[in-house]
Amino acid sequence: MVAPLVRATTGDALLNRQLRAQGGAPVNHKRVYRIMKTHNLLLARRYTERPEQTHEGKVVTMRSNIRWCSDGFEFTCWNGDVVRGAFVIDAHDREIISWRTVVNAGISGSDIRDMMLEAVERRFETYRAPHPVEMLSDNGSCYTARDTRIFASQLGLRPCYTPVKSPESNGIAEAFVKTLKRDYVHVTPLGDAATVLGLIAGWIEDYNDNHPHSGLKMRSPREFISAQTATA
């Protein structure tokens, strides 16, 4: 049975990944598309005007723990509470390593520093990276604050920043924000911040465990990491 596997934003790639995990036969993606189109189940395409300036810098790396990317997200609950968050994502394996959220406030430099420390501890099981790791972010004050830059250096991280007004230069982080909103935020009742804060950890775990990436040969971040570890 396919129905129990499907959620509002399930596409053919995720469906096939789930079927393979359960020993089922893959489904032809063109057939899935035709059926979904017939029943008006396709997600509406969102048009966003692109800036004229383009950037050719490559964000993806050849190995894990060479470059981490960080960005923020924001959404409003039905009762008016505003939830803001930030996260660290690996530019190679796409795992969300660490994250922070606040309610009705901005992400502070202290939040970013705590998040960076947690990322280093999770990836290296120590308080300092064994080799320099680039930390790519925008020019927000929480990232560019002197205390944050000094602390990053002490952790073995090398801060680097995208050009002003060019979010596409941090494409990996931007892609995660879009996935978070499409697959979780937009399909979940967001009554109040207390409810949402109890859900975000599960969303991120689900993304890390189950969300397929074309750049990872349609594996989830943790499936990809496990495969890399097995062949190392």
TrEMBL record:
What molecular functions are annotated in GO for this chain? nucleic acid binding
Provide the protein name: Transposase InsO family protein
| One of the GO biological process terms | DNA integration
- Top-rank taxon of the source lineage equals Bacteria
Which residue intervals define the domain Integrase catalytic in the entry?
47-229
Name the Pfam families on file: HTH_21 (PF13276), rve (PF00665)
**Cross-referenced NCBIfam families, in alphabetical order?**
transpos_IS3
